[in-house]
Amino acid sequence: MSVIVPAYNRAHMLERCLTSIWSQRPRIPAEVLVIDDGSADDTAEVAERLGASVVRHPHNRGLSAARNSGLRAASHEWVALLDSDDEWQPHHLGHLWPLRESHVLVAGSALMCGADPLKDHFHGPVSSKPVVLRSGDRLICPGNMIAPSGALVQRDLALRVGGFQSYRGGVEDLDMWLRLLQHGTAICSPRVSVIYHVHSDQLSLQDQSSKRLATGEATRAHMQRTGGSRASIRRWEGIEAWDSLRAALRASDSRGAVRWGRRMIAHPHSLEGVASVLLWRFRLRRRSVSLRAIGVGPAGREKSLAPGRRR
C-alpha cells in the first residue's frame, strides 16, 4: 500500500503525521509519499529525514494537484490518503485493510479535535457496524461521512475517473467519492481511526458559504453524470437552505432568513432533507459525547480535561 501526504509549508506538523504512519500495526505501509506543493519552508527536508519519499512541485498548485501527483507516483494498487495536519491511530490501516474486499473505496471514521476536548466532533457513519454505500445519495444527504484522511482508494480507478478536481470551496474529496461510487461500492467503518486536527488556517474552515456552493456544484455534476433522481439533490437543497437560514438569523438578516425559509418549504423533498440532517447531527453529537466519555482523542491530550469537566 502507498500513502499520499500532500503538504504545503507544514514542516512543523509533519513529524506528528509521519510518526502516526510509521506506528501502524501489524505492518507499516510499503511506500510513503509526501507531495511538497511548492513550500517555502523545509517541508521536503523534514519529510526525507523522517523516512518519506518526496515529490516536489516547483510552485504551489493546490491540494487536488498534490494528491494527483501522489496518485501518479504511487506504485501500489491501493492508496491511503492522509493530510499533513492529521494523524492516524495505530490500528487505522490494520482495521481497514480486511474490509476492502470488492469495494473501490474504504474509509474509517475521524474525530475532529481542537483545543477544547469538550468540542471534539465525530465524523463518520452513525451506526454500530460498517456501512456499505452503493451510490452517492447518502453522501449528498444527510452529508459526506468520509474524511479524506480516513480513505483508502483504488489507485488506477481514481486516476481513470479523472483524479481530484479543484473546487473553490474545498469539496474535492466529496467529488472524488461520488465519481468512484459510479464504478463500485464503498464501505465506511464507524470505528475512529483518524484524528482530524482543527486549526485556524485550514482551507476547509475558511469560507463556509463557498463550501456550500461548491457542494451544490459537485452534487449537480454527479446527478448529470448519473442521470439519477432529483430527490437527493432536493433534500440537499433543503439542508443548504436550513444552514443558510440559521446563518441569516445569527447575522440578524431578517430578509435573508425569510428568503431561505420560503425556499426550504417550497419542495417537500427539501423538508425531508432538513429532517434527515437534524437527526444525523443529533446522532453525531451523541456519538461525540460517548467517545469523549471513554477518552478517545489525541494521545495525552485527555489529561488536560479536568475530572469535573468530563461529561
What gross morphology would you assign?
globular
Proportion of residues in helical segments: 40-55%
Order of helices and strands: EHEHEHEEHEEEHEHHEHHHH
Biggest sheet features:
10 strands, mixed
Distance between the termini: 39 Å
Going by helix content, strand content and strand pairing, the class is alpha/beta
- What is the mean pLDDT? 88
Q: Could you name the ranges where pLDDT drops below 50 across 5 or more consecutive residues?
A: 302-311
Radius of gyration: 20 Å
- Give the count of helical stretches: 11
Describe this structure in words.
This protein is α/β, with parallel strands linked by helices. Helix content is 42%, strand content 18%. It contains eleven helices and ten strands. Strands 1, 2, 3, 4, 5, 6, 7, 8, 9 and 10 form a ten-stranded mixed sheet that branches. Strand 2 (31-37), helix 2 and strand 3 form a beta-alpha-beta unit. Helix 9 packs antiparallel against helix 10 (254-265). Mean pLDDT is 88; it is low at 302-311.
